[in-house]
Structures are given as C-alpha cells and as structure tokens.
Automatic annotation (TrEMBL):
Gene Ontology MF terms in the entry: succinyl-CoA:3-oxo-acid CoA-transferase activity
Annotated keywords: Transferase
EC number(s) given by UniProt: 2.8.3.5
InterPro entries registered for this protein in UniProt: 3-oxoacid_CoA-transf_A (IPR012792), CoA_trans_fam_I (IPR004165), NagB/RpiA_transferase-like (IPR037171)
Pfam families reported in the protein's UniProt record: CoA_trans (PF01144)
SUPFAM superfamilies cross-referenced by the UniProt entry: NagB/RpiA/CoA transferase-like (SSF100950)
Organism: Rhodopseudomonas palustris (strain HaA2)
Name of the molecule in the record: 3-oxoacid CoA-transferase, subunit A
NCBIfam families reported for this sequence: pcaI_scoA_fam
C-alpha cells in the first residue's frame, strides 16, 4: 500500500465532506499541520467540527479556516491568542465546547484506545460539568467525559518513513501522537521523509499502522506566537 502522496491536496482527495470532525495536532503554533490545514481551507469543505488545543493565532494555522467560516464548532481548551476565534464565539457565530487541557488530551487518548467514556474530578462543580453525568466514587464526585474519535486527523512530524512511522521533535510532539490514533484516517505531514526501515524502531513515536497517508513538506516555518524582548537602555537612548 503506497502511503506517500505528492502534496496536501492529493492526500486529502476523496476524504473530505461537509460536516465532518477533524482533529488537528499542535499546541499554539508548535507542531501544527499548517500545510494540511491550508489545503483544507482551499478545498472549501465547510461546517467542520475541529478538535484542537487551540486555533492558532490570527492569520496562521486553523485561524485561516475561521476567516473563511468553514469551522462550525471547535472543541478546545484555549482560545486566548486568537481574536477572531473570540469574536466569532461571542457573536454566536461559532460553537465552542471547552475542555480542560488534560481532559481534552485524555478524551482523545480514550477515543484512540476504544474507550467510550471515563470519569475525572476535573471540572466538577464548574460550567464544564453542566449537563454531564456526575458519579461518586469513594466519597468523591467525578464527571463523566466522552472519548473523541474523528473522521480525519492531520498531524505534523519531524521525520517519517514511507510506511507511515513518525518521529516528533521535542515539544512539537504535544497532541500529535494521540490524535494520530483517534481518527478513521490520519494524514501526516513530515519535514523529512525516509525509506521504510531507516528509522530505529525504538525511536518511533507513532507506528505506521495508524497513518494512512503521508506528505513531505520540508523544513517547516517555526512561527513565534508572541515575541517578547527586554528593553535595552542603550536602544532607548539612540
């Protein structure tokens, strides 16, 4: 089975449909599948439910899909870096399901492991628990959270081989490995594509069995969400 595709558009061909659920890896702008998310925007697919820790920042990543109003609902844990995200939500133009970050990660992991639901103390007594089952264990209250399983997952890896085995680099690993397991189809974009067998099995983070399609994108642009610098007295004096 050939998993390698020449570009993002061809890798997405035959998969997309309106109203589908898509998982998008990354944390902030670190480890986002930017090439694939841009191809989603260009495809025109709409009414999407997107599972992602956040939606990037204005003008970068998933935010471009918000600009074109292709996202109907976000399942996220953080929206603070994206003004457009906040504007659309406050205007009632975007549905939002908030999940504490650890709970979101566990919901994705559970979906990939075939676990339909689990109980956690996180969120009990808050808005997060509204409308959800509460159960008591050993004198403590827990809220039931549902596992998440998507139609499509898009992930970014530092290295991959033609069999779909993936290696993530440092903190760019974040949500990518668990999302790769929690979808009917996973498409990976990799910076370096090598022949099957070239990656040491002990170094593989995502086994190729979870990856159906793969593209090579070269060295990804490393965006900075907020550039913070210390003021220099000599600079202020000139």
């Amino acid at each position: 089975m050939n998993k390698v595709y020449p570009d993002a558009q061809s890798a997405l061909a035959g998969i997309l449909r309106d109203g589908m659920m898509i998982m998008s890896g990354g944390f902030g702008l670190c480890g986002i599948a930017e090439t694939l998310s841009d191809a989603l925007r260009d495809s025109g697919v709409k009414d999407l439910t997107v599972v992602s820790n956040n939606a990037g920042v204005d003008g970068i990543g998933l935010s471009r899909l918000l600009e074109t109003r292709q996202i109907k609902k976000m399942i996220s844990s953080y929206v603070g870096e994206n003004k457009l995200f906040a504007q659309q939500f406050l205007a009632g133009e975007l549905e939002l399901e908030f999940a504490p970050q650890g709970t979101l990660a566990e919901r994705i992991r559970a979906g990939g492991a075939g676990i339909p639901a689990f109980f956690t103390k996180t969120g009990v007594g808050t808005l997060v628990a509204e409308g959800k089952e509460i159960r008591e264990f050993d004198g403590e209250k827990y809220v039931m959270e549902r596992g998440l399983f998507a139609d499509l997952a898009i992930v970014h890896a530092w290295k991959g081989d033609t069999a779909g085995n993936l290696v993530y680099r440092k903190t760019a690993r974040n949500f990518n490995p668990m999302m790769a397991t929690a979808a009917k189809i996973t498409i990976a974009e990799v910076e370096h594509l090598v022949p099957a067998g070239e990656i040491d099995p002990d170094h593989i983070h995502t086994p190729g069995i979870f990856v159906q399609r793969i593209i090579e994108v070269g060295s990804a642009k490393k965006h900075i969400e907020q550039r913070t610098t210390r003021k220099r007295p000599e600079a202020a004096a000139t």
